[in-house]
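hi! just following up on the protien thing from before. the input was this:
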Amino acid sequence: MSFDAFAEFRMDGHNVIITGGAQNIGAGIAKTLSGAGANVMIADLNGEKAAETADEIARETGNDCRGMACNVTDKTQIDAVVKATVDAFGGISTLVNNVGWGGRQDNPAAIPEDEFIASYKLNTISAYRMSMACLPYLEKAGNASITNSGSFSSAVPAYDILPYATAKAALNQMMVSLAHMLNKRVRVNSILIGTVITEGYASAGITPEMQERMMHPDNLIGHPGRPQDIANAMLWLCSPAAQWVSGQTINVHGGGNVVRLFGE
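and the predicted 3d structure came back as:
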């Protein structure tokens, strides 16, 4: 029998929740984990799109993939997703806190306080609430893991998206603390994501001109990433291949250093 170097990257028997998985990077993660054999529940603010994406993935991979609406800032809706996932798959072994969003500020010196609070609720508190809601099931699973979609903006000056970058920085601290709190029971990691051009940039106030500049970022590789680049890293961190990895931030950003993400 030949040696299968990819066997530990398989996700057969794993039951996964992915927040913000209806499109863009989240959809890429959902498709990749499903393709590796996992049962996947996509939870997204856009329930119709979540169901549509899940149906497409299920047809392509042949594995069980479902989608439902969820506002991750609402604990009641978080609990509903957790219950639906357990009812459908019998448990939860893997949580991907992928949801996140932040708009660009034209005047960083005049950001309303409410904008900081809303960003913290969406990008940080939601991940904590979802993690705690899944915890009773994660603790019963083998190779249980929580992996967050973080942002490279959390590690460099990024004052054009200050509320978002600040909230993602808080997510980094939370990840490390949870990894220690849940030691020996659940692995917890984060991916710091660099420039990946998606449809979401337009809704964040990133103009076509800015997006064109972002196609040639100042990183070691010289081009922006693809959703698949993030999904590949996510597969490793969620799979048994990374069973000895916890409390880590993995940079997937082309190796670059960015001070102003979007330019003047």
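The mean pLDDT is 91.
The longest strand covers residues 145-151.
cheers
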